Amino acid sequence: MSHVCKALIIHCMDFRLIGQTASWMEREHLMRDADVVSLAGSSKSLVDGDEETKNVLLKQIDISHSLHDSCTVYLVHHSSCGAYAISNSFSSKEEEKKKQSEDLQKAVLVINERFPDLKVKKIWVDMKDSDGTEVEITEI
Ligand SMILES: [Zn+2]
């Protein structure tokens, strides 16, 4: 019996998006085939200078990769993220998406520096309402 899965999903802990994240995983055939890490701001800690949380997240990636042989990491970020609102004041949704997109790109580099054989995908969840009922999920 092998304990192998194809992916690791790192997403924000935000309760509003848990159901939508699960539905997206089903559509992508990732349900029961991916490890999942749930952390405020998703991969934000890889690039925001919080070394303690960064190391926790890198450890989770290492475990998923070495123990379960996962080969793709999905970094799932979303609009109206409270973890980003704590340290930023955005004047628009576009400005928030730009900042998070830049962070996502930096996070890809951080992961690939440590784990060059991992494929990293950036996923953006655009919340169309405040409670996460309607979302648009795209790879960016
Ligand atoms: Zn969030």
List keywords for this structure.
globular; 140 residues; binds zinc ion
Account of the protein in words:
By secondary structure, the protein is of the alpha/beta class. The protein contains four helices and five strands. A five-stranded mixed beta sheet has the order 2-1-3-4-5, sandwiched between helices. β1 (7-11), α1 (18-27) and β2 form a beta-alpha-beta unit. The radius of gyration is 14 Å and the shape is globular. The N and C termini lie far apart (36 Å). The protein binds zinc ion (ZN). Zinc ion (ZN) binds at residues 12, 14, 41, 78, 81-83.
SSE topology sketch:
Elements: E1 7-11, H1 18-27, E2 34-38, H2 51-68, E3 72-78, H3 82-87, H4 93-114, E4 119-127, E5 135-139
Parallel strand pairs: 1-2, 1-3, 3-4
Antiparallel strand pairs: 4-5
Zinc ion binds near residues 82 and 83.
End-to-end gap? 36 Å
- Continuous helix count: 4
Secondary structure category: alpha/beta
Largest sheet: 5 strands, mixed
Q: Cα-atom Rg, whole angstroms?
A: 14 Å
Order of helices and strands: EHEHEHHEE
- Total beta strands: 5
Low-confidence parts lasting 5 or more residues at pLDDT below 50? none
Shape: globular
Please provide a brief summary of the model:
The mean pLDDT is 96.
